[in-house]
């Protein structure tokens, strides 16, 4: 029931944000901006998109080889793209569930390792998004963000804190458990829940912070997000009506952060509204910014959905794989 309510809320919010986008614009203005799109720039953006995902696949492989050292990049590529495709078309983050439990047998890993990688990926991506937003605000002189109410300094400090946690989780572990015990003394239920979550967090981080693994994961994350930033920028370059192409580097973290808002599969409405808002905040016309947001959304949505869908059609998950994935 909670999931159904969340989906209904997401659909309503998507409708609200789409209404906010179109309430002062005509479809003719957006069509005109679309009609000027340069397909060469868009094609280049798609190529760079796949380069970025190649980096994400290598990052995932580095986490998985601690469980299966023989695992190769090509074995990880299909399952990761399939999970992205599933998230793009199915509700309730079905792609994450698919990646955590659906491919373990063919990858030669256990469910615990697969689930752990999802958590570490979220932290790495949060580090990148927060850092990119802080750098963008600093570069454009937007010390007080119109989107989340904090400035560049705070965001960069938060990014540094996340990076320190990723590299040195043992430093935070005693304090975290002390906090859990302290809260348990007057709120036993909350304290136990916090300690359980802390255990999951530090188990995951200790799994990936040993040796040189985490610095390599951070490096591949930087490369992946730089590639995604260039996808945003190249898409902006494809539209002559977009005056300030560099605004795409602000749209990258703002649009990405908008995806945490409950919404539909593929983040219809939420991603588009905040991406367009980031573009207009740096002087781009509203119609051009809206056309950019929708065109960018297609560039980010269509390639992984097709690639992941084809992989699942050619390599469907068999019944025995499902059985093993659901077994303890």
UniProtKB/TrEMBL annotation:
Transmembrane stretches, start-end: 7-25, 37-55, 123-140, 146-172, 217-236, 291-314
Compartments, record wording: Cell membrane
Keywords from the UniProt entry: Cell membrane, Membrane, Transmembrane, Transmembrane helix
Classification via Pfam families: LPG_synthase_TM
Primary residence: membrane
Superkingdom, taxonomy of origin: Bacteria
Gene Ontology cellular component annotations, sorted alphabetically: plasma membrane
Membrane topology: Multi-pass membrane protein
NCBIfam families to which the protein is assigned, alphabetical: flippase-like domain
The name this protein goes by in its record: Lysylphosphatidylglycerol synthetase
Taxonomic source organism: Pollutimonas subterranea
Lineage per the UniProt record: Bacteria, Pseudomonadati, Pseudomonadota, Betaproteobacteria, Burkholderiales
